[in-house]
Amino acid sequence: MNSIRNIILLVLLTTQISSCGIYKFNGVTIPPEIETVSVAFIENKATIVAPTLSPTLTDNLRNKFLTQTNLRLIEENGDFSIEGSVTDYTVSPVGAADNSTASKNRLQVTIQMTLVSEKAKNLEFSQRFTQFEDFDASTSLADVEADLIETISDNLAQEVFNKAALNW
Prior knowledge:
Blueprint: H1 2-19, E1 36-39, E2 43-44, H2 53-68, E3 72-73, E4 80-96, E5 102-116, E6 125-136, H3 141-166
Parallel strand pairs: 1-3, 1-4, 2-4
Antiparallel strand pairs: 4-5, 5-6
Helix pairs in contact: 2-3
């Protein structure tokens, strides 16, 4: 009796998932008519330009779509066409240790991203996304910048992906 109930539940679950356009079991809800995505190189237009930020961010966002959807990545004019730029890259003190010194510094990155879709106009957006990471004030930014950029870029890529693929 238990095995029959499990089979029925499995059939119902499979029917529900396949009927609503979900590509994987990870919550992605991209409409089935969307088959391709293009992610343009994310230019760094911030006052401070970290050389690895743009390529890292672009690669992380492309990889999100490649690994978490069935969409084909194409150079341009995808069913989802994503472009954007880094608009802010700042380091500021946070968390005072005493009245005169900071115990932490914060690297903050802001990007402006746009998604255009002829096939799913209701999913289009133009939005700013901001992420930051704190690091010990006694540490030089140069010593931790590569790791911070990787973490921030991954978090920003996840936010943009969530907005596009999960409509968050």
